């Protein structure tokens, strides 16, 4: 099969979302409110064992790691109250050393959650009646290396092509890194 060129797409340090225009128009990002009124609360860090002894919470497994402690699918007000309680306890007892996160069920966090068990952090969700694919980069893979962020106006050719096993892959063509261009 001949690769099908899809066009030029930006590569962003946070990842990539690919989908039909109708789905992308309906997309809710990091700061948007959850359509279902729910959120996940997670905590991790130096004092996570102390926090777990005090507050409980389940270990939230993710691909290849045990993941943080926390609670999934809480009503937003309850999630905010638990996070505030954890943060107040941390500040009172330890000062720092415990990270607490509230992830509202907006589309950004739903796609991240859909990729928790995939080794490449890839997940598909339905947005605006359309399937949308989300690809989250690992922190070490972000686009600073190849200056592909939207802010830089950089885009790279992407194509859909068959792999050796007969499946389909998206392939970005990103030029090799030039160490001599670092000061530009």
What labels would you give this structure?
2 domains, four-stranded antiparallel sheet, three-stranded antiparallel sheet
SSE string = EEHEHEEHEHEEEE
Residue ranges: pLDDT <50 for 5 or more in a row? none
Treating each run of at least 4 consecutive H or I residues as one helix, how many helices?
4
- Secondary structure: helix percent: 10-25%
Integer tally of domains = 2
Distance from first to last alpha carbon:
40 Å
Q: How many extended strands?
A: 10
Strand ordering within the main sheet: 4-5-3-6
> Rg to the nearest angstrom?
19 Å
Structural class of the secondary elements? alpha+beta
Q: How much of the sequence is in beta strands?
A: 25-35%
If you average the pLDDT, what whole number results? 83
Q: Characterize the largest beta sheet: strand count, sense, and whether it forms a barrel.
A: 4 strands, antiparallel
Shape: elongated
Can you put this structure into words, describing what you see?
- There is one protein chain.
- With 184 residues, the chain is α+β, with helices and mostly antiparallel strands.
- The chain folds into two domains: 1-32 and 107-184, no CATH class; 35-105, no CATH class.
- 21% of the residues lie in helices and 32% in strands.
- The protein is built from four helices and ten strands; from the N terminus they run ββαβαββαβαββββ.
- It has a four-stranded antiparallel beta sheet with strand order 4-5-3-6, with helices on one face. The protein has a three-stranded antiparallel beta sheet with strand order 1-9-10, with no helix packed on it.
């Amino acid at each position: 099969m001949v690769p099908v060129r899809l066009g030029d797409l930006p590569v962003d340090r946070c990842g990539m979302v690919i989908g039909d225009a109708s789905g992308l128009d309906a997309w809710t990002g990091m700061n948007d409110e959850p359509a279902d009124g729910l959120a996940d609360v997670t905590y991790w860090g130096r004092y996570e064992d102390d926090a777990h002894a005090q507050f409980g919470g389940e270990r939230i497994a993710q691909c290849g790691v045990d993941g943080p402690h926390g609670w999934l699918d809480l009503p937003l007000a309850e999630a905010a109250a638990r996070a505030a309680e954890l943060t107040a306890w941390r500040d009172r007892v330890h000062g720092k050393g415990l990270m607490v996160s509230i992830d509202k069920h907006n589309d950004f966090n739903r796609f991240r959650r859909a990729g928790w068990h995939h080794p490449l952090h890839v997940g598909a969700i339905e947005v605006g009646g359309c399937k949308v694919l989300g690809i989250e980069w690992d922190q070490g893979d972000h686009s600073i290396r190849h200056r592909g962020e939207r802010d830089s106006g950089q885009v790279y050719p992407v194509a859909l092509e068959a792999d050796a096993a007969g499946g389909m892959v998206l392939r970005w063509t990103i030029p090799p890194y030039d160490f001599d261009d670092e000061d530009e």
